[in-house]
Amino acid sequence: MPKYFAEVVGLRDSSIGGTIDGSIRMIQGFSSYTVAFCPLAKHSHPNFNQALFYGNCISYLLDSPVIVLPQKSEFYKNNFDHLPITRPSPNLKPALNYVYDSFNRELCVALESIWSMRCGPLVSVEFASEEYNYESDFQFTKFYKCVSKELQLYSSSLRQLDPLSEYLAYYRILESSNQNNAKEWIENSLNKIFNYPIEPVNVIDGLTRRKADLYKLYRRRAKVRLSFLKKQFNTEKLIAEYLYNENRCGIAHGKSNIKKSDFSVDYFSIVKDNYIIKLLARLAIEEKRKKFI
Question: For residues 122 and 131, is the Cβ–Cβ distance under 8 A?
Fold first, then answer.
């Protein structure tokens, strides 16, 4: 029996398999986006931190909200501090289990809503790529451990309902990889976001049966937005200052020039800027990753 499961929201039925690091088999539940991390023979179960890392890697590859839930015993250790009123007695196991199951279920429903609002109500994502098969081994530790902090931030950004929070989460990746406010790096990187290699993220719309590579769509929209910003600001330096001073600081701080999340002009400009900042975040991750592999 596996100890940990990843809820890969948006994952298409029967589209995942293969192994991780030659030791963990990924098994997708029938008609479900739940993926179990099952150890191969003579290998041990991953611990919780390892399972979180695997989940973040999958989230990065699929651009999908992914959550790895703790076991019941780990969940109960926190004494339900996230709830203001409901605090079942440790002796009432059915009540404990009900709160645990309810929390997990509602969290997944919330992530389903985020995926649906971002991509469409019946859009699903395939794990497969041209080189992929069910015997593939994904060397997550070898290729992604060096950017584990940035992958955690990226996975967190995909779980944000509010585009302003999503933007800030992406910008934290730039700050993490550059160890500064990243304005100079953005200035020198804006024109690179359309050319660096990205593995296809294949999605299908259940309404229209249309198939597409999600990142081709993102790049198309980012190009339109960047063209608009170049006309408005003229130079990459001024665009970088806009992305940091006006957007990042306007979202993070409450003193002045506050960005508002109320379907105003601010809201929809940030939605468009997210296509640029998302691609910059992935570029920052890939550049850092190449230094170690």
Answer: no
Please give the helix or strand (H or E) that residue 27 lies within, else none: strand 24-28
- CA angle 127/130/133 to nearest 5° reads 60
Beta-carbon contacts of residue 63 (< 8 Å; ≥ 6 apart): 125, 158, 201, 214, 215
Distances 269 to 226, 273, 278, 290, 292 between C-alpha atoms, Å? 12, 6, 14, 32, 36
pLDDT in tens, 193-226: 999 999 889 999 988 889 999 999 999 999 999 9
Within 13 Å of residue 251, how many CA atoms lie on the same side as its CB? 25
What are the tokens at 64? 């999908």
Q: Where are the domains of the chain?
A: 5-138, 162-290
Rounded CA-CA distance 113/255 in Å is 32
- The answer to whether 167 and 275 have CB atoms below 8 angstroms apart is no
HSE, side-chain direction, 13 A CA sphere, residue 184: 4
DSSP secondary structure string for all residues of 141-184: HHHHGGGHHHHHHHHHHTT-SSHHHHHHHHHHHHHHHHSS--HH
2-18 pLDDT, tens digit per residue, is: 899 999 999 988 777 78
If you search the block for the tokens 């079942």, which residue do you land on? 88
CB atoms near residue 77 (< 10 Å) = 10
What does the alpha-carbon distance between residue 164 and residue 273 come to, in Å, rounded to a whole number? 10
List CB contacts of 191: < 8 A, sequence separation 6 or more.
236
- Taking phi first (over 0 means left), then psi (-120 to 50 degrees means alpha), and beta for anything else, what does residue 139 get? beta
Q: Indicate the pTM of the whole model.
A: 0.90
**Rg, C-alpha atoms of the chain:** 20
Residue 73 CA to residue 100 CA, distance in Å, equals: 10
